[in-house]
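Ticket closed. Logging final result for histidine kinase.
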Amino acid sequence: MPDLTDLQRLLRVTPGMFVLLRPDASFTILGASEDYLRNSHSDESILGRPLFDVFPDNPSTDPVGSRTLRASLERVIATGEPDRMPVVRYDVRQPASKGGAFEERYWSPLNVPVLADDGSVEVIVHRVEEATVTSNRSAVEILESITEGFFTLDRRWCFGYVNAEAHRILGVEQGSLAGRVLWEVYPGLEGTPFWDNYHRTMDTRIKTSFTAYYANQARWYEVTVFPAHEGVSVYFRNVSDRKAQEIQREALSDLSQRLGNASDATEAGYRGAEVLGTVLDASRVGYGTVDHDSGNLFVDRDWIRADVQSLAGVTPLLAYGTFIDSLRRGEFIAIPDVRLDPRTAAAAGALEARHARSFVNVPVLEQGRLVAVLFVNDDKVRDWTADELRFIQEAAARTRSAVERSSSEAVLRASEERYRRLSEELSDAGRMKDEFLATLAHELRNPLAPIRNALRIQSLAGNDAAMIARTRELMERQVVQMVRLIDDLLDVSRLSRGLIDLKMERLSLASAVGLAAEASRPAIEAASHELALNLPGEDLVVSADPVRIVQVITNLLNNAAKFTPARGRLSVSLERGGDFALIRVRDNGIGLRADKLEHVFNMFEQVDRSYAQVTGGLGIGLTLVKRLVEAQGGKVHAESAGLGMGSEFIVCLPLAPAHEDASARKPGDERIGKTTDPRRILIADDNEDAATSLALFLEMAGHETRVASDGAQAIAIAQTFMPHVAVLDIAMPILDGLDAARALRAAPGGQELLVLALSGFGHEADKRRSVEAGFDEHLVKPVDLGALEKIVGAKSRPK
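Final structure:
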């Protein structure tokens, strides 16, 4: 480096304003031109001193000049390249002789490096040109007075002049941007409309205007970029509030459309949350309905950001702590930072784990009652604005309306569907009822025709004992068939109303299967079927009504026989299945379609009606099976591989616990013995044929009988006849059976009289009324004559 004295002598005579600086931390002044010394009100005493000590900033203004110059000099050292600065204000102190005040000055500097052989910066030449003071002062006054932010950028994208409004909008200290590179200060601008439009104006020298969102600040800016002599000039405004209102208006319009298209209440709640979450850039948003009975908030579906886990479900209202009281009063809960708010600080960790560093809860009230809550969570600190809260409230109100509308529509649709289904069921029930009544009439006429014929034959047979015996057997068979039909109907009715009386006891299933097979043998043999019984070595014992279990197996066998073409194969198998006994009734008959398996037990159901019309039946046998089995704690279901593949019905009954001293009863063990002790029996029935036929039977058994056609006549006959037994029909004219029984009981000797009720009704309520009137037994028509004879012989006590 040359001697400083010689260098200064050389610089003094060189035209222009420049100063030589050492590239050290203080930027020491090595030399200065005469023009520079004169215009800066200095002399050669500045040589060897730090630049910024000699030329300090005006303390009454922002120190932008020194910061801007220092930043430029540091860039020269770092890059080894010249650096031209934008016009900058750098006030100069006047000489003490002139008062020493600062003088407003504007400069256009150029800093040029002098490089050593190794490429390092040896000296910096700081050359300046003074800008027109008046024009720049006017320009600065204008730029400082405008309500828009303004700054200049040179071709290296370094900030030059930045007005006060720009500092305020950007939230930075005055002068902190001077000389710094735009993209380094705001790296989030790259790849955005800011980057594209700034470069477009810099390259094409054409003005551009745009509105864009800067994510790093979560703000919208309205920007105009002008080409300038050394780069570009930028005017900008923060329009976030206005843009947010526009976006919110559009979002609410979009929300209304989405809510209108929502298929149900759950979707409506989600659509409201979805719009809020997208517009507010939240982490999680949910709409929940309040159930005051359970004290819970129900969120069917929440909107969540991609990296957030759903927390939809049930939340106790108590989990809201004291906030629930505020929500019930209709107050918003808006927390900018859960760590700082004293109401949430203790639970901040748990809240942040749910992505709620900040959150809003908006209550929805109807008639002063909290009905819903809409919540918005954000995993960043957030100062919720009044516009945002209004937006959330409006979205909550619209969502509530849509949820209620969807719920009402769903209820209406469900009601309409129920009405349609019931209409179809009623229509089907009506059709099935008509078909059933037609079938019933047919099934009842079938036995009546041979009975009528047999009666006519007997009237013509004279003393032909063989013919009379044949016709009697025929009539007995037909009467049994009619009784079976009527009994099935009555059993179904009683089971439907839970009125059937089951006599539960330990029962051997093997014996029940044997009796059922015997009972079904006529139907099986009539179709030339084969029947195989597969019984296990062990005796499977259940707790059940023996008569009803035999009835179940008999019905299943009869059904199999009916729906299996002639010479088919039927089987009954017993097996243990854990703690249950399984009764399997299988056939190789017409089979069942898969869609009919669940309907085959329905009342009056005829799976193949054309086949049923040929084979007969009312279509209630399987209904009776199902209800009898379920009434005894069991289950029954049907299986079939399809049409033509046969069917299998499986009855599942719980096994009875083992008892060492208890032996299973085998149904059919009872034997009815004839009475040898004749009785006087009074019979009262307004059906003369029924009363007469019963009297004839009892007389043939050796008893003496009298017949009455109503209750009053029965009482009169009893006074002279002095019966041991009174058999009274309940429904008689003049005086019914109930009142007649009370009168007979009240008469002398009435307490020793055996009084039996006859009725077509066999419900428990009917039996109870009979007992209350003084009857000893309630017998359901048609009476089993053997059972009647047994009762008379066992219970009557003659004087």
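Residues 501-654 form a domain with the Heat Shock Protein 90 fold (CATH 3.30.565.10). No further action required.
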